[in-house]
Amino acid sequence: MNQLDSKNVKDRSPQFALQRRHCIAVALTLAISGACGIAAAAAPGAKSGPVLVLGDSLSAEYGLTRGKGWVQLLQQRMNDEKNPRKVVNASISGETTAGGRARLASLLRQHEPGIVILELGGNDALRGLALQSTQQNLEVMIKAAKEAGAQVLLVGMQVPPNYGATYTEQFAGMFKKVADTQKLPLVPFLLSGIGDAADAEQWFQSDRIHPNAQAQPQMLANVWPKLRPLLK
């Protein structure tokens, strides 16, 4: 029997076959463990990732000194409570739900947030966009954020009575409908205690649209009770 024949006999021996199966099993176990290790490492990162605020001018410090908006006050509040999360403000003045939808995927990849605060829809109303379109955009963004491992807080808005009673009710109700359907917390009205206050004029800038610096703590006070449980 030559050397090649001897090797072939050894390869076919029961002992060698058993050893080979054992090696394959070990290799598969290591491969699966490695894959699980990657998934396990990614999940905590997503849960403990930053708070991403995707909003419009109400969150983008429009007309305010930098650092005076409610989003920056949120970061200060979290720092005071020793919460290590960072707040990423991706808000843009004039942003619509369509614009937010177009930007969200790249923001999720870049920041890997643990929480997404969605504050959009007001500009849709100002532009007379269909409620159905606004609702669909919100739902798509919420699902995308959830699929990325983030919790979502939806921030609602209301429009002035001059839009008509029917539209006003439908617009405010849309946020509740989305929150109920998607099973997520809702801030019913970001400007509660400001836009609906008897002395509302003192809380707004000269354009009577954007809240001034004095109104920002109240805006944070409206968001904080709904956000805090998500931070734990």
UniProtKB/TrEMBL annotation:
<feature type="domain" description="SGNH hydrolase-type esterase">
    <location>
        <begin position="53"/>
        <end position="214"/>
    </location>
</feature>
<dbReference type="Pfam" id="PF13472">
    <property type="entry name" value="Lipase_GDSL_2"/>
</dbReference>
<dbReference type="InterPro" id="IPR051532">
    <property type="entry name" value="Ester_Hydrolysis_Enzymes"/>
</dbReference>
<dbReference type="InterPro" id="IPR013830">
    <property type="entry name" value="SGNH_hydro"/>
</dbReference>
<dbReference type="GO" id="GO:0004622">
    <property type="term" value="F:phosphatidylcholine lysophospholipase activity"/>
</dbReference>
<dbReference type="InterPro" id="IPR036514">
    <property type="entry name" value="SGNH_hydro_sf"/>
</dbReference>
<protein>
    <submittedName>
        <fullName>Lipolytic protein G-D-S-L family</fullName>
    </submittedName>
</protein>
